[in-house]
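REVIEWER CHECKLIST
Item 1: Sequence provided? yes
Item 2: Single chain? yes
Item 3: Sequence as submitted:
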Amino acid sequence: MKYEGAIYRPPSEADSLILQVTVGCSHNKCTFCGSFKDKKFRVKTYEEVKEDIEEAKRYARFIKKVFIADGDALVIPQRMLIPILELIKDAFPRLERIGIYGNTKSILKKSVEDLKRLKELGLGIVYLGVESGDQVTLDRVCKGTTLDKTEEAARRIKEAGIVLSVTVLLGLGGVERSKIHAEETGKFLSRIDPEYTGALSVIIVPGTPLAEEVRKGTFKVPDPYQLLEELAIMIENIDATHMFFASNHASNYLPVKAWLPEEKEKILAAIHHVLNQRDPSMLRPEFMRAL
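Item 4: Structure as written out by the authors:
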């Protein structure tokens, strides 16, 4: 497999074959993200992808899941993406699901019918970085979209029958907008009602614009307990149909996971217990936090 640069995938794709179809991120302007700063975005050729799939067939023919990388591979035009999915489907007879990152812009380039066609070819889950339900915060971090557009993108994914998994980022509003960010993110998650939500915590990556804001003092990172307060506020404001909510990523100080609304009160009680105790031993040590 001819991977270019560091490869990123969602935690739930740990057992998947990673197929790099794009290099980098088509947006690549978010101030908090350093994942693709060393890559110039491009879409690999059909021949490059086919060569990787042929190699994978020799060593992992019976793989059940494939994840298409890099940052937002759903941006690939439909006329190019369909043949790639057809190759994947033909290559792996036991394939159960294809997963892919998509951002709001790339999803909105496709109609519901386009997405349904991708589902027929095996696309089972789309991972969408929502980050915040507060438009001011999104604008400050240069997310490059609006909440209304993201809501429409989420609607299309769900209408196509594809599972929607979103990520949000605790602490992204800084200390200044901590409560607003948490409240509005919970409310926005209620609006789009994804099947899965993963809450990560902001980690300042050296060399990013956000790191420079921290250096200048224009952005202050919430402390661990402020991040837990955000987590509780966010969950309190989620009115979900049936959502699996997890903050068990390595960036988080307190790993929690729950089905909402079924386990909402239980998980809030656990968070408030830690907040009341203020015992550092209950938190993940700083040296163990990572992206």
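Item 5: Key structural point noted by reviewer: Residues 11-288 form a domain with the pyruvate-formate lyase- activating enzyme fold (CATH 3.80.30.20).
Item 6: Recommendation: ____
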